[in-house]
Specification:
The structure is a homodimer. By secondary structure, chain A is an alpha/beta fold. Chain A has two domains: 70 residues, Orthogonal Bundle (Arc Repressor Mutant, subunit A); 106 residues, Rossmann fold, CATH 3.40.50.720. Chain A has a six-stranded parallel sheet, sandwiched between helices. In chain A, strand 6, helix 7 and strand 7 form a beta-alpha-beta unit. The N and C termini of chain A lie far apart (67 Å). The structure holds a DNA duplex.
DNA sequence: GTTTGTGAAAGATTTCACAGCG
DNA sequence: CGCTGTGAAATCTTTCACAAAC
């Protein structure tokens, strides 16, 4: 069962999340069995990819039949570490931080926002519209310790990003979701996932420029061939 | 100069964004020249990677010297299509949509939020705290046409995601930044970048579970060796 | 019959290492 | 001399294709 000889790639992990969501939907639809082909068609990817991803963690299928939806979903929940409670602290009670703290997508499935912290005295002691208490950034180590929160979401201004990341690390948190535009530097034992809005928008800008260039080239080619 | 024989990968595009941000910082620091090694050290990646990425688009360096910061920055701006104005429409005036519409990271550098649209009659006609006008979703095609906006940010509830994506596509927009947890399906000529918060959090959960497992295994091994 | 799990092949990406230029 | 630009090598990822299992 323990097949952790090879390191699991981030891409595989990301796809496990996708499989999980798909299985949750299938279960809700009352479907009891599926196959790597069935999943692959729904998710627009190769069926061998799905089998390979799952093979990193064990054998979950029945040959000639496929996978039991409920069972496979449970396995992936376990693999991803979602069977125990996971506490999240949002750092930065600005518009984005507040919106993230109240984000309904986080509710349920063992993940919960335990607190929102900020340096602004006017906000400390209040609660978000969704009921998340706002506390002092100073209290971060204490809150982390008492609640057992293991994930921090960084939603502070760029100028504060690195310093706040350092505080988060010092408070013992080892997993960070970074919403600032700064690629914060942390020790190797801490994992940072960077949600970089600038990069996303610039990726779309590049796509649009390519479209525009291709169209122009096409027009010119057509004009030239006349 | 035109070397578009090979398709440019998303990974290369994402790194161009990173190079751009780094060059902007260097320029602000008053540094005039840098090298692939200098950039690589700052960005924690391989210098050949940077040279290969740039080689897709031309030759921008000076052998024996490196790159002129200002010039290379201008080249990347051009490559990414950031030299002309890019309008963004945010769809969904909930907490997240409003926060994104006012997000300061988007301001400047040719990118601007032109409007926020929603179906909620109570919100239509208002403005966000940052001054972005809220208009009716019905007006989306008209707003897109009049403002020339080319990018839509989806920040609607999951139940509305696919239907709203269809409307966005019908209004002529070909680039979407999807903040919903739904992997929306669109025609092949439309590009969607999916910011999937669930996937990000689950990636961190997996990392934490691995940490916990490794620590436990280590403890057991130590106990066994006594 | 069908579908899994998996070696082997193909493809993509990253890194090395060096010729050639400034 | 130092650094770019780039083939070749190494590495990583995806896909193929089929034996084994139900």
């Amino acid at each position: 069962m323990r097949k952790r000889a090879v390191e699991i790639s981030d891409q595989t992990t990301a796809r496990l999340s996708v499989y999980l969501r798909c299985l949750t939907a299938l279960e809700k639809e009352g479907i009891q069995y599926t196959s790597s082909r069935g999943l692959a068609e729904r998710l627009q990817l190769n069926s061998a990819q799905i089998r390979k991803d799952l093979a990193c963690f064990g054998e979950f299928g029945i040959r000639g039949v496929g996978y039991a939806v409920r069972d496979l979903r449970g396995q992936i929940l376990r693999i991803l570490g979602l069977t125990r409670d996971l506490g999240i602290i949002v750092v930065g009670a600005g518009r984005l931080g507040t919106a993230l703290a109240d984000y309904p997508g986080f509710q349920g499935e063992s993940v919960r926002i335990v607190s929102l912290v900020d340096v602004d005295r006017a906000k400390i002691g209040q609660r978000t519209a969704g009921g998340v208490p706002i506390r002092s950034l100073e209290k971060l180590p204490e809150i982390a310790r008492k609640t057992g929160a293991e994930i921090a979401i960084l939603a502070v201004p760029r100028s504060a990003a690195q310093e706040v990341a350092d505080r988060v690390v010092r408070s013992g948190i080892k997993a960070i979701l970074n919403f600032t535009p700064v690629p914060v530097v942390v020790p190797a034992y801490v994992k940072v996932n960077h949600v970089d809005l600038t990069r996303e928008i610039e990726g779309l800008a590049f796509f649009l420029r390519q479209l525009a260039t291709a169209r122009k080239a096409g027009t010119e080619a057509r004009a030239a061939s006349r």
